[in-house]
Input
Amino acid sequence: MGSGSVTEGVVPGTATGFDLLGELPTGTTVLEASAGTGKTYAIVGLATRYVAEGLVDLSELLLVTFSRAATQELRERTRARFAEVVDALADPEAAATDSDQLIRYLAAHDIAGRRTRLRQALSDFDAATIATTHGFCQRMLDELGIAGEREPDVTVVEDVDDLTIEVIADLYLQRYGRCEPPVSHAEATTAARAAIFDQQATLAPGNAEGTPAGERVEFAREVRAEVERRKRMTGLRDFDDQLALLHRVLSDPEHGLAACLRVRARFGVVLVDEFQDTDPKQWEILHRAFHGHTTLVLVGDPKQAIYAFRGAEVLSYLDAVNTSDAHRELTTNWRSDADLISALDHVYGGAALGDPRITVHRVDAARPGTRLAGATPLRLRYLPRTGAGPLGKSGYPTVGPLRANVARDVAADVVALLDSDATIERAGRPEPVQPGHIAILVRTHAQVSLVYDELQRTGVPCVLAGGTSVFTTPAAQQWLWTLQALEQPHRADRVRLAALTPLLGYSAEDLVARGDELVAQVGGALRDLAMVFARSGFAALFERLATISELEARLLRTASGERHLTDLRHLAELLDDAAASDSFGVAALTRWFEDRMNDPGRGSADRSRRLDSDAAAVQILTVHGSKGLEFPVVYVPYAWDAAKNPNPDTLLLHENGRRILDVGGEGSPGYGERRRTHEAEEAGEELRLLYVALTRACCQLTLWWAPSYGTARSPLHRVLFARTPGSSEVAPAAGIPADSVMAEQFAAWAKASGGLISVEATGIVGKREITWAKPQQDETSLVAARFTRVLDGTWRRTSYSALTASAHDGAGVGSEVETPEKDDEPEEPPLATPVSMVEGIPSTMETGVASGGSSGSS
Output
């Protein structure tokens, strides 16, 4: 069964509405969501019903999602829901009229039995299987034991980047060390790393032997094989290996059926979240293990399938729809106001997002009207071509200055919104729009920095909410200069660079005034720090450095100091972890750090920048990072920007349902056709990224449109102007007419919304001083909390040995007055002595532990 194959099942596009209180799903059901329709609420509600109604015990329920953070949230929400229902059902009369429809439903029949089952589930909640896909695979392999090809000494790692780089270097030298290489080391590295990252893809071209393209393919294949060999030799397994191993076990001709039967016997109901982000192997595991035998509910939103670069395939979701027994959909939006939902319908309503089976359908709004007063639900600010800056050879404004101008306009508009009379209804009361209500969503990390810098100039508090690698920050360069000086403190040039970093805190004026004296002083301090590192590790080095240079006090007095200090400390932690885990000295640690700076995407998720403040602030994040989140007010300033790498090193695409990775490069056999297919699939994903960005807003959304050379192919321009009336298809591009015609089209589009959309022309925004002054708030008198709790001084942790120690020791000095012993035993023993319960049990530590566990009142 390959991805994209059409098999018997439901007909695509015939989904029916889902009712949480209706008949519970059986068989294989695809539950299709849309943004804001509460899919997690539905999953938790289904889990509650399956357990409360006695269809499965908690141990027979499997909940799967696709990230550790999502798994933790799902676990917490499921437990909280169980507890909430248990509490509510304790009062049958109140439960029967509760505002919560699920509680009312469960209170209608067998209320005592349902509450008992949920209480038992809460008691046993640690036994619940709520896991990522990879966690589920690991658990099944462990439970299958020998049938699961269990390898007890294997270490599971998140990625094998370091091993891959090592293999690439070795094989490149082995293959081309004695001849003129037909491909450069950089080209070979790119091809090989792409092949390792996407193990399920078939490498292309397959008919290019004797050419540079063929060499890249062959080299990538060799690296794949050698990485696998070295992983086996060193006892490593990554997450993809877990999937491949379980897939192999379940598909085995001899033992696969028995393995499937054991997995099915373990679970009676399987609920899978974020199913649009699955891949063919994950879907085949679920299909083989559960389809046709177990209740399998697959929940996802194909309109939010935006992770093709990670191996996710929306085609697997569509294949599941075709093979399922039922296709249901969630039709009520609980996030956004009705006015904003109607406005968004004028943007992308009815559009097909890269595939005719992935169409935006209108959803109902749970919240009528709008919670925003004094502002339009959807705004579009546009720059006419005339006056938008210098024109390039294409006749359009140069994209670099255009991006910078939009960033300045965003900052100015945020200040204007904060200074306006606009209010948002929160908890039933209107309150002025605050920085913490606002999020700005961008496409690239470079755009993150542009917007952040402009907001910083205005004084509006803002934070980077993840996504950007900390190795791309100025703090990384400053750490590199400091490491290089630590490595060679006798080199004056390196010492001077390190001295000028915030880590040491000297200025250029200091270096000029004190010259060689200061260089010698700093060099000596660096030698001392290197000794601290050798003796006590990198964490001790950093704390010593921060103390002698007064790092925190200096940085926190500067603009963006909190941000900078956060990055410096984050990098120090990563350096300490690398030094400790790999026993690096200064030289090796410097090389490691430089490699990470040259390839910021390498390594684990720990590289993502952390929040620098927990204060209420505007959040700036990428669209990928915003998925699953919501914000009262959202700015999307760069949906018009379609600039991409004109010559990508690799192409990812599908041919006849197969995932293809082209590593041959331009000019290889079949490259042109594969390039067109790749671009068409990428354009579809860009439309889905736009959908994700636009659906994060609860109350207001503000968009920008600007006329660059790439605007015609941008997702925003395409959904607005590249659709034929009555058709869902979105063309690959749409022309950009003259300014006057563009203004008329925007005006007509806004007018058709009935006042829900406003269009505002803007122009060049100068680097003028626009600042925001935080409104003064009444000072609140703070009083220290009083500690009134009474501590139990008699409680202590003890053991069986401690409890019985007095039985083996003589009398000692005690804190209480000793009284003479009273002989109250009978003069004659009873005729028969009862046999002790512990007679015959050996006197061992294990016996003591066992009896100590039950001797609380003895």
Remarks:
- The chain is about 45% helix and 10% strand.
- The chain has a mean pLDDT of 88.
- Residues 508-536 form the longest helix (29 residues).
- The domain at 470-607 is CATH 1.10.486.10 (PCRA; domain 4).
